[in-house]
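Appendix B. Extra example for self-study. Work through it before the problem class; the solution is given directly after the inputs so you can check yourself.
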Amino acid sequence: MKCKKCGEKASVNMRQHKLALCKEHYLEWVPEQTERFIKKYEMFTHEEKILVAVSGGKDSLALWDILHRLGYQADGLYLGLGIDGGINYSHESQRLAQKFADERGLKLHVVDIEKEYGQPIPVLSEISHRGHGKPCAVCGLVKRHEMNRIARDLGYAVLATGHNLDDEAAVLFGNTLNWSSEYLLRQGPVLPSADGLARKVKPLCRFYEREMTAYCLLRGIEYIYEECPFAEGSTSIYYKELLNQLETARPGAKLTFYLKFLEARKRGDLFIEQNVGQAHLHPCPKCGQPTSAPGLCSFCRTIEKTQQLSLSE
Ligand code: SF4
Ligand code: ZN
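Solution. Structure tokens for the complete assembly:
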């Protein structure tokens, strides 16, 4: 297999794009494509401050690296969740995120959830009794809240996450199986800013997961290989496996599934009333973030509940 650009030996073969590239041209191709997607979906400009949610995994570090190479003003945010799972997951992922930032002279904000709210995620989840054993419901709630909070308090216009095509296709598949109209209408590369929340963008949403793995390996980016121990057995991993089977039989199927969805959504062709799910929002009296719940938002309610319970123990 030869590189399409220079004829040298190819390092990466992308069947879905009918494109093979050598290391040098692959490492040029990825940022070029990212820049194209940033412009196409009007994600952000060079004048805007961007906060990249960094987990220490390959996608978020690749995203930060690419934005830095493209000359964007991108700082990182690492949330210390306090998850050990026998592999010291949080400790190791923070070490790698910090190492990445230090080596490049980039700014990484670190928020330690335990220091901030008294308990690490698994304990917050246990005492709040949300999520039936797995901490993912509370974890998702806390991560969303903290990303919004830091972006607002530190004046970032844009919040960027490293979701890749495999992530987006799996979410789309799940939302389609459940015909979750509210989520389908909100899913996309850009969620505009609203109610004082920063704009959310996913610049890697058109890259396959293996393309990001190849990028990190060829760029020499050290990242945490292990997934969060709580991800094991999750529905989204199951959907990813199903979609991988489909992709093997029909290269490009994942990308087509996602892109055709975006086109249909743009045309207003989703067979869904465009005004569903526009619940009335008001600012939470405690943290100021928008909520549809009467009184406190679900994050503040969860934290309050866990604090009351730990006091009464
Ligand atoms: Fe949080 Fe881990 Fe669950 Fe992901 S898999 S939501 S990081 S607990
Ligand atoms: Zn609140």
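Self-check: The mean pLDDT is 94. If your reasoning did not lead you there, revisit section 3.
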